[in-house]
Amino acid sequence: SVENPLDHSHLVDGINAILGRPSPKTLEREVLLAYARQAIEAPTTLPATDIPSRQPSRATAPDDTVATSFEIPVESLQLLSFRDFGVFVFRGSRIFIGIRCGPVGQNGIGGHAHNDQLSVELQVDCHDLIADPGTFVYTPFPQIRNRYRSAAAHFAPYPAGEEQGNLSGGLFRLDDPWAAACLEFQGGRFVGEIARRKKIIRTTVTIADGLLSIVDESWGCTLARRGSVEPPHFSAGYGEQVRSGVKD
Predict the structure, then answer these.
(1) Which residues pair with 214 in a beta bridge?
(2) What is the pLDDT of residues 6-59, one digit of tens each?
(3) Which 3 state secondary structure label does DSSP give 213?
(4) Are the C-beta atoms of residues 70 and 208 closer than 8 Å to each other?
(5) Which of 118, 133, 212, 213 is deepest in the core (most CB within 10 A)?
């Protein structure tokens, strides 16, 4: 089978389905019609996220802790904060470290958002050591796209057996997401948390002595280890095709 990211005929089918125009009956058309009806009939407001009334005290021992570290070049770093979007960057002449921690798009509806809160990307000497796998194609293969949206596809913490947000509401929805907040970003240190109801996950990223240290702590849940699930193949670039899983 061949995946062709340049084939947008499924979008034409979707437009025809919404407008009631005749169109060949295809799986893509039926899927898009179902999602279109769901989006049109969906409520315009979402329930407020239930955020815990207090942050966990440092004196309170976490229920679970997972630590990971990587050797990196020692050098001075530039810190870049994009709080409105939810990205925090440590950048040097040889390294790039990106951390996702912020709001879910479209006023909490999701849009293009993935379950990537507190995920980390690492590049050393232009080589990706930890990389986001990309988005895949948007609409023809919902199950595959949702795999790329999942927390396991990213180098991110999440509760064992759960997602950071519900992916079943549609390709452009991320329902009941965990609320994210950056608590500290200075020097060689980042601290962020995600929380939902009585569950909290805190991530501390520290850069010191030639090591990138990532420590995840949780309250009210058990952590899935970052990278324990093999992520999907890196999404092919625009204009490229994938045949039998091998990029042409």
Answers:
(1) 68, 205
(2) 566 666 766 766 666 765 555 555 665 565 555 444 333 323 333 333 454 445
(3) strand
(4) no
(5) 118
Structure tokens, 128:
């990706």
Q: Which amino acid is at 98?
A: G
Q: What dihedral angle (degrees, nearest 10) is formed by the CA atoms of 74, 75, 80, 86?
A: -10
Residue type for 71, please? Answer: E
- Scanning the structure block, which residue is given the tokens 């951390």? 99
Six-digit token pair at 158?
């999440």
**Residue found by looking up tokens 């293009």 in the block:** 112
Rounded to whole angstroms, the Cα distance separating 216 from 205 reads 9
Yes or no: say if 75 and 216 are a contact pair by the CB < 8 Å rule: no
What's the predicted TM-score (pTM) here? 0.69
Q: How far apart are CA 235 and CA 137, in angstroms?
A: 8
Q: Which CATH class is domain 59-225?
A: mainly beta
CB atoms within 10 A of CB 4: 14
Q: Where are the domains of the chain?
A: 1-44, 59-225
Instruction: State both tokens at 9.
Output: 């005929």
Tokens representing 14? Answer: 């979707």
